[in-house]
Predict the 3D structure of the following.
Amino acid sequence: MASLIAPLSATECHRSNLASSKAMLAAADRRVFLPMYGFTESFNVSVAAALVLQRLLDAAHESRGQLPAAELAALRLQWYTELARSDEQLRTFLELARAGGAAPFADTRRPEAHRAEQRADGLRKASFQCE
Amino acid sequence: MSSARALLVAACAVVTLVLLRFRKRRALRDAETSSSEISSKGFLVCSMCKRLQMHTCYTAKQARRHDHLRKCRGCVATFEATPEYLEESATRRAQAVAARTAKARTPVVLPSVADSVDDPLRLARKAETVLCGRTERVCLVLENCSDDLNHVAIMRTCEALGVQRVWLVQAATKPTEADDASADVKRLACSRARRRHEARAAQRGLGFDPLLGVRRAQLYAQHLDVQVFQSTAACVLAARTEGRALWVTDLAQDALPLGSDVAALAAVLPPKVAIVVGSEGAGVSQV
């Protein structure tokens, strides 16, 4: 997951940290902003991140699923292995991964039966805790 | 003696046959090349009036057609103006356009497009669906996000939107007594928010990571390619080596507005871009 770089000395960290914002702005190829229409002049950082990403991804939609082939294969192998529920399924999935992956769905929404199960599960848990 | 004579006659017959076949083939070839020879000199045959005419008597499109289909301007004019022809050509054009758009829009045909309970391969297919949604063109850079809740939210959003690359620039760590850090840094690293998060994580028995927050953010991060940088300089260097353009959210008046015009943004969007949020001040949750 994370490729951690060997930590610098603490002071170096701090020094770079103080100037971080300025350094990033100085290095920027382009400054962008989200148009706002109210008296409020800033978004919460997570909201800003979501909105900016949405805008950029709308413009870069065709780049989806275009990860480098090696990375794609590695991720597929990793996720298939994690998701397989039994040895038999694992074998099937690995074969699929070797063959270039299963057929994708149109989107990631789960089937209606599973949603109902999920809701019921929540209710069951709540009632169990009440007893 | 008579047998030798018969043999000679037979040989003569064979030679004659071969010669005849050769001549016939040559004649055929000549007939084929004749039309192209004529066209190279600028003359073409009309298939309707059967006349040999200058190439200027044909439209460019007609001139490119086969001999048995080509029609001169005069012949075309005889049927082009009729209402039946106009109607027919309009429908044909509409059909061609419809076929072209259908071809462009139809995604890869799949056995079943929606997730269903009885599909034995549904988990693999789900993973594949997620893979098909991942992109590396846009990469999110998070600078000094000290607020744990925002951290979780951002990771979760990135995962949901399919942003595979997330770069974190490390925030200031708690300074030790030996460090002669300025008061600013000390204040930042030992901020009330940070201490509160650490205390809350400890209370719940969760591990606290100053970068990834509590366990929940780590959960979202496990499906992403998270890279941690010790300093802004290292992050900028990584972007440069990867050939990523660095875009920073800033309220400067010359900044590019990210409006609703997708086509305009797509025109200026570089092939690879790293977008930096939360860069105003250390850990300030503002754009």
